Every structure is written in structure tokens, then in C-alpha cells.
Amino acid sequence: MKLQVKLALYNTLTKLAIILFTGLLILLSIEKISYDHVELRLEDDEKEILKNLSSKEINGYLSTQRTYKDYNILKEEFIIIKPVKFEPTVTEEAKFTTEIRTNESVTQTYRILTHQFNFNNHTYLLEIGVAVTSVEELKSIIKRFTLLTLIIALALTLVSDLVFTKFLLAPFYKIIDRKLIKVNDPMNFDYEKIQTTTQDFELLDDSISTLMKKISNLFALEKQFIANVSHELLTPISIISSRLENILLQEELSEASENKMHASLKTLNRLKSIINSLLLISKVENNQYAKTDVVMIAGVIMEIQEELEDRLEEKHLTFNNNIKYIYSIMGNRPLMHTLLFNLINNAIKYNKPKGSITVADELKEDVYILEITDTGAGMNQQQIENAFNRFEKFETEEKESYGLGLAIVKSITAFHGIRVKIDSVKDRGTSIYLIFNRELDFT
């Protein structure tokens, strides 16, 4: 899960917890708030009634010791004043109860204020009731409103957090993309700082740039060392080879000595081939080749097929050239020849007798894909991951395998901006894909 999503979820869950707590508190307080509001209203009604006891309507009932009753039309409110046993001293504090009353065949639940008072040397009981149906309706309305508010707040919180975290983490993802994911060559690293106001991201940017600078220096030293050592070794190897060849020309040389000389020459030639391969890799990585040739891929494949015809016949392999498009790349023709030669040569080297090699291409919207497939030994996942490492050798009957072929392929593809992908199944074969950008026209 992305950091942006995690932050958004954390903020949302935190705010959701606060909203839920607040909403629950409101719901639990609704009833008390509602009843408090009703009781205040009843107390106001009580004061108003006590002020109007001398009115003609009420006084007439009280004078004759009759019960005074008053209901509104919907029976939602009532007032009852009835005489009770005389009490010289009565409390001034009203009492509140909730009761079910039936008034003129209408049964409802009421919140009732009960208060005893003395008037004209008589004690009376005052009851003022209000139906709590309105309270229940108010509670229902508040619950729905609270739920709706919760959902809207949650949605707004999630959206706002996603937008904010996306804005906040934008420099972080730029740093990861530009300075880690897209870095194929430490020598061409982009040291330009990513604009950000977050100190942590600035520290990350500076740390990566510092680390890449160290890696670039070490990488440059390594390439220079390989180039220098390889170049210096070629001269003594050539001198030794020449001397051994001159010794072989002597007639008095014994057969045993001659065999040893041939073995030594073979070892020297193997060493020379390895050094030349390392020099090639070093020169490619140091950009010592020009990319001024228009290289037609189909033409190079045909040339390599003719060059390797004897090896194909030797292993009884079928070569299927299924190229349908004419694609040209601006690059270095000898290097492109070496690249494709190494791939097809590997397809022969690791193939099974009477197997096949298929070269096909595919044209997509923005890329051209060249596929080289064999029916050979194949590779497991670990071998695929290590395939482009130098001196990485796989099981083969070929004695002249130095483990540098795919390392050269990797250097040349990087030099030309070509992506390379391996798809292989053990004991079933290997497919190598070269993915070109569409630079020139197709015909």
C-alpha cells in the first residue's frame, strides 16, 4: 500500500473516531436536552398560570372547589388544577414525571409538571403536561442529521486527505522516480534538486545525490581500471603468442612439446578474447563509440544467419526468420551486429539438437519489439536475474563460453536506449525481447 494511501487512511480513521465519539455523545445527550427544553417550557407555563389564578375562568372553578381542565385540540398539552387536602405549608419546587395518560379516548405519553400551591386558604394540585411525541420526532430528526453529517464529513475528510497527501508527497515520488527508478547509468545521474519545502525530503534528496556521487566515482574508477588493465595485458599476451608460434615452427620440437605449445596458445587466445570483451564493455560504457549509422535490423539478422549457418547445421537447428517490418535505428552498426550476434549465438549454444530458433517482430503504437526465441535449456528465476552479470556462465557443452556475452548485450542496449527483457522456462526454452522506441519510419 502506498504511503499516500496509508496517511490518508490514518487521518480519515482518526477523524472518523472523533466524529463517531462526538456523534455518540450527541445521540446520548438528545433525550436529556429535549426533556430539559420541555421542562423549561412547562416551568414557564406554570408561572403564567399562577399569575392568572384570579382570572374569571380559573377563579370560578377554584371558588367552587371543582377541578379545572384545559386541553388543546390535538390533546398534546393539558392543564389540570384540582383541590387536594389542605396543607398549611407546601413546597415551591415542581416535580417532573413521564406518564401515559388517556384524555378523551386519546392515549399518549406526557412529560408532566406537578406542583402543589395554596390559594385562598385552599391547597390545589397543578398538573401541566406536554406530549413527548414531538420530543421523539426531534430525537429522530437529530439522529438522521447526525448520521448524514457523519457520512458527509467522512467523505470530505477522505477526499481532502487524499488530495493533501498527494500534494505533500509529490516531491517524494519525484525523488524516487527521477533519482532511483530512472537511473540506469550512475555516470549520467541528475543532480538537480527537487523543489520541496519539506526538510525531510530535502535531506533524502541530498543523501541520494551524495550516495550516487560516490557510486559514480567508484564506477568511473572501476571502468578506468578495467580499461587500463585490459589494454596493458594485450601487449604481453601478443608477444607471448608470437614467441610460441615461432617455437612451433622449429622442426626439432617433440610432439609432446608441440601439444603443450598448442594448449598454451589456446589459453592465451581465450585470455585475449576475455580481455577484448572487457575492453568492448568498457568502451561502450564510456561512450567511446559514435551513433551515426542507420542500422536496419532485418538486414543485420540476415547477415548473422548467413555467418552462423555452419553452426546451425552442426546442431541440426531450424532458423525461422519471421520478421515482418523494416525497422531502422540510429546507432552504431558494428555494436548492433555484436548485440544481435551474441543473442543468436547464445540461442544456438544453449539449444537442444534438432531444436529451433525463431526471430519475430511486433509493431505497437510507440515501440518496436524484436523477439528471439529458442527451444533450449531455459533458465530459472535466479538465473534470469543474474543473466547480465559478468562471468555468469550456465551449463553448456560449449568450452568457449566466458560468461560475457549477455554482459556485452546489456552494455550495448543501454548505450542505444534499448530495453531488454528475458522470459524463460527451465527445460523449455528462452525468449529475449528487445524493445526499441519508434525513432524512424517503418515501411
Question: Would you kindly provide a written description of the structure presented here, covering whatever features stand out?
Answer:
There is one protein chain. The chain has 443 residues and is α+β, with helices and mostly antiparallel strands. It is 54% helix and 20% strand. It is built from 10 helices and 12 strands. The strands form 3 sheets. It has a 5-stranded antiparallel β-sheet with strand order 1-2-5-4-3. The protein has a 5-stranded mixed β-sheet with strand order 7-9-10-12-11, with helices on one face. Helix 3 (133-181) packs parallel to helix 4 (199-248) and helix 6 packs across helix 8. The longest helix has 50 residues, at 199-248. The chain is rod-shaped. 18% of the residues are buried. The model has no long low-confidence stretch (mean pLDDT 82).
Structural class by SSE content: alpha+beta
| Cα-atom radius of gyration | 47 Å
- Biggest sheet details: 5 strands, antiparallel
Helical percentage = 40-55%
User: Which ranges are low-confidence, i.e. pLDDT below 50, for 5 or more consecutive residues?
Assistant: none
Transmembrane segments: 12-30
InterPro entries: BphY/WalK/GraS-like, HATPase_C_sf, HATPase_dom, His_kinase_dom, HisK_dim/P_dom, HisK_dim/P_sf
Catalytic activity: ATP + protein L-histidine = ADP + protein N-phospho-L-histidine
EC number: 2.7.13.3
